[in-house]
Amino acid sequence: MKEKIHKTMRDNPALRWGVLLLSSLVMFFNYYFYDALSPLKDLMQTNLGFSSSDYGAFMSAYSVPNVFLAMAVLGGIILDKLGIRITGTLFVFMMALGGVITAYGASDMYLAGGPGYALMNSFLTGYSPSLKMMYLGFFIFGLGAETSIVVLSKIVVKWFKGKELALALGLNLAIGRLGTALALFLSPYLIHPEWTNAIWFGVLLLWLGLLFYIIYIFLDLKIDKQVKEALPESEEDQFRWRDLLDLITNRTFIFITLLCVTFYSAVFPFVKYAPDLLMNKFGMERDIAGQISSILMFGTILLTPLFGWIADNKGKSATLMYLGSALLIISHLMFALTTITPLLPIFLLGVAFSLVPAAMWPAVTKIVGDNKLGTAYGFMFSVQNIGLWALPILVGVVLDASNPEFRIDLKDQQFKEIQHSGNFESTLNTKSSTFNNKDIKFKYVVYKDSLSGEIVYRSYYETKTGKDGNYSINLKNNEMVDFTNFDLLQIPEDARIFIDRVKSPTFGDNDTIRLLETSKFRLDENNQYIANLADSGKKPDKKNFDAIISIKDAEGRVIYSESQKLYVDKTGKTEIKFGFGELRSVNYDALNFKQEKYVAEIIEPLDYTNAMLMFSALGLLGILFAFLLKRDDKVSGYGLEQPNIQK
Ligand SMILES: C[C@H](NC(=O)[C@@H](N)CCCCN)C(=O)O
């Protein structure tokens, strides 16, 4: 008898790939927010008073629900009971809510005593209210995020089973990884004018993710109706406790799970510290450090499918995992013990981070079979989260222990003296010789007072250290100032304002067109000034334009300069609000620290040697488990060295 063929929405390629796009974008936003804060570690240290241990604890909050509530397993069970629509909405909403709470914990409104501040200030007083609020936020984000990955994968399986499933799952993960890459790349550019904008941008993406998920629900409702008519409900993917018992008594599965936890713990937590490591060890600017860190993720997007193809067609999965673990150690040791260009270890890490996942996740199907796959992945995610929870904390603690005095407090008389002379001399805090006889970057941060932690001025210096780590800084010769309170400036009566139109993002002098030069300007109480560009006879051709605004003294010396987007109205008027653009330069001599309560810090670079040695040790454990897995495969006969695709 000929079977009746039921066509469903799954058979429509446009709809199927459209669903993949929706679910992958939610995955992308999830991965984006997970790493959006990684390039901002030092800003959390100076703006919120975080230590490295605080930062590590905050980052590990993501994994707390997944370790202690086993959310990846529990989420799978909830998913089986409540279905994709309710579970997905609930957990994607948690991600978005967690994002808001995290960003709120760093906001000025919260720091000024906004809702929840008093409560967070009333317990565990050794930790700052910001840390506690942000911890709560990242905890709720993590609660939603890991289960969302399970739900999103289930959606892909639902629409692609029997079709292009492996490709779809691979693309889903690749787009997720693109989220991490873009977060590392973009966050450094989003810190102007307010550094927390970089966090709020991630929050915006999470809410967009919720919107996309809600759009998907309509498609899910429709497909469920069609599939119910076409096929009886399948029980095979459901969670069963018996399966879990089978898994944890399977030696090969235990080895692959241990490899998963050690390997991923040496990668994801490393990414959380990578931009900060590059800024400290190699003196890179934040944007370059973000770009180099992102190469790791961009690389995996290209290489994972390649290694996946090798595992599928040529086999050798166990060997690939072994090789990946070896590369991981080499890369981390390079970071720990050499000053070789970071591009090389980052590249090697990218290869390692492509080799192991490409070989590992498909290998699990051989060990546990298709019907236990959901439970197996859920279990592995939960165990993996133990590492993602512990490592950021451990690295933070090791960093603090290896850099006890890297922030040098300057108070009262000492601040006044240094402010007056402009000179600071000291010897590096670190006992290792990593930074001796090298060009090193330092930060100088002035706070309004010792209590509020409000920054009024921050500048960066590069200077050569001596053979014993001694150094001297001339505060007037800064490399860059990235923050100043505009009110600190003493602007002479005869100062003039200049507006130059910027054509090139590199701000080259030759690329600017002078638009306005006036000595008759008066700032209102909000540092706002209205210029009439039409008067100059050089009205810009566009309404919105990038400009450099400078204030110069009568001799033409720049007192203050920033770049910002200006808008010119029909009559040629433009409003300039100082202090809201990207700071370009501030003349040190024009600074006037009027009140008495200022405190300042000279911040030395952090020595990452011990932290990186710890990551290398983890890699060593990884290689041990990869070896045991490879050896065990010969006995258990799962065929991990055989091609995944049987010809
Ligand atoms: C597939 C794997 N993802 C995971 O292991 C997740 N449990 C952790 C994701 C953390 C970022 N949201 C991977 O990305 O290789």
Total tally of structural domains: 3
Average pLDDT reading: 87
- Described by its quaternary structure, the protein is single chain
According to CATH, the homologous superfamily of the largest domain is MFS general substrate transporter like domains
* Total count of strands: 14
The main β sheet shows up as: 5 strands, antiparallel
Structural class label: alpha+beta
- Structure ligands: the ligand C[C@H](NC(=O)[C@@H](N)CCCCN)C(=O)O
The helical percent reads 55-70%
Quickly describe the structure:
55% of the residues lie in helices and 14% in strands. It has 19 helices and 14 strands.
Question: What do these coordinates show?
Answer:
This protein has 647 residues and is α+β, with helices and mostly antiparallel strands. The chain has three domains: 2-225 and 235-403 and 606-636, Growth Hormone, Chain: A (Up-down Bundle); 407-487 and 595-603, no CATH class; 490-590, Thrombin, subunit H (Beta Barrel), CATH 2.40.10. It has 19 helices and 14 strands. The strands form four sheets. Strands 1-14-3-4-6 form a five-stranded antiparallel beta sheet. A hairpin with a 5-residue loop joins strand 10 and strand 11 (558-567). Helix 5 (71-106) packs across helix 17 (373-402) and helix 17 (373-402) runs antiparallel to helix 19. It is globular. Bound molecules: the ligand C[C@H](NC(=O)[C@@H](N)CCCCN)C(=O)O. The ligand C[C@H](NC(=O)[C@@H](N)CCCCN)C(=O)O binds next to helix 1, helix 8 and helix 17. It comes from Salinivirga cyanobacteriivorans. It is found in: Lysosome membrane. This is Lysosomal dipeptide transporter MFSD1.
